[in-house]
Amino acid sequence: MTDFVLGGLAGVPARQRPDLLADPVRAALEALDLLDAVGVVEIDPAISDTAATQAAYGLEPRWLVNCVLVAGKRDGEERVAAALVPADKRADVNGFVKRRLDVRKASFLPLETAVETSGMEYGGITPIGLPAGWPLLLDADAAAEPLVVIGSGVRRSKLLVPGSVLASLPGAEVGAELARPAS
Question: May I ask which residue range the UniProt record assigns to the signal sequence (predicted)?
């Protein structure tokens, strides 16, 4: 069993606290048999944002992995991907993501659309439980981390996940070109 401790966060296997997971996240963890491979920790929803979580729990930016939903259209078809990048980097939306989606213009999914299509709360959107068929573009540095912090689908908790588990999710594509250092 993995030890779910990172900085000031100490979690338990997700199996022990399914009440801290959004419905699509819980269903995906069950379907993928990951309820013991992923940890969950309850937090104050007021400090759910990346910078506040980092400060409150003494976390390194590389341990906090943000999930942004990006979309573009091609021949009238909307194409969506999740980009997973550490807090000290920014997704290359107008380069790498746009080319991967094979669209002329890529942009962040509007807030209402992101919440509706993911079934998750804004600020808690996570790659686990997103609609099937969406590519999960994962930064190579995040995939190499022993443990990272991601959303749980709700703002009142975070998941503690080995980078290798993220890389093994259905639709995951690991790439060094996805993100650039934040300026």
Answer: none
Cα dihedral: 73, 74, 77, 83 (round 10): -50
Q: What is the pLDDT of residues 59-83, one digit of tens each?
A: 999 999 999 999 999 999 999 999 9
Instruction: Let me know: does 134 contact 28? Beta carbons within 8 Å.
Output: no
For residue range 95-141, what is the model confidence (pLDDT) as tens digits? 999 999 999 999 999 999 999 999 999 999 999 999 999 999 999 99
Query: What are the two backbone dihedrals, phi and then psi, of residue 47, each rounded to the nearest 5 degrees?
Result: -115, 30
Nearest alpha carbon to residue 131 among 27, 10, 59 = 27
Domains and CATH numbers, the chain: 11-181 (3.90.960.10)
For the cut 90, the answer to whether the pLDDT of residue 182 exceeds it is: no
- Asked whether the beta carbons of 150 and 123 are under 8 A apart, the reply is no
For residue 3, name the pLDDT band (cuts at 50, 70, 90).
confident
Shortest CA distance to 20 belongs to which of 142, 160, 118, 146? Answer: 160
Q: How far is residue 113's CA from residue 78's CA, in Å, rounded to a whole number?
A: 12
SS (H, E, C) 127-150: CCCCCCCCCEEEEHHHHHCCCEEE
